[in-house]
Design goal:
alpha+beta; four-stranded antiparallel beta sheet; 3 helices; globular
């Protein structure tokens, strides 16, 4: 794992990282999360993987990630996930 860019964003209490990883196949989000959290000795709850990009025919992948100082900082900054179709249907049934 090679660190291409590492910035400390004091305003948002996070580290912004761009890493170059060599692998045989495209790493999944969970594999990338595991690699970043172990390399930087951070809790998995405080790590967000933004993107995994690869080029055709190469075994190197660019991983963009954020490491927050605490879980509370992550919750304040990161956008909330939209409710899935099943959750929306359950809410509609509960209202009737």
């Amino acid at each position: 794992m090679k660190i291409i860019e590492e910035k400390n964003n004091e305003l948002l209490n996070r580290k912004e990282l761009k890493l170059l990883v060599e692998a045989e196949k495209n790493p999944s989000m969970s594999e990338a999360l595991e690699k970043v959290s172990t390399h930087f000795k951070a809790e998995k709850d405080c790590v967000i993987i933004k993107a995994i990009k690869g080029k055709f025919g190469r075994n190197t992948f660019l991983i963009s990630a954020f490491i927050y100082k605490s879980k509370e900082d992550l919750v304040k900054v990161e956008p909330k996930k939209k409710a899935g179709k099943e959750q929306v249907e359950e809410k509609m049934e509960a209202k009737t």
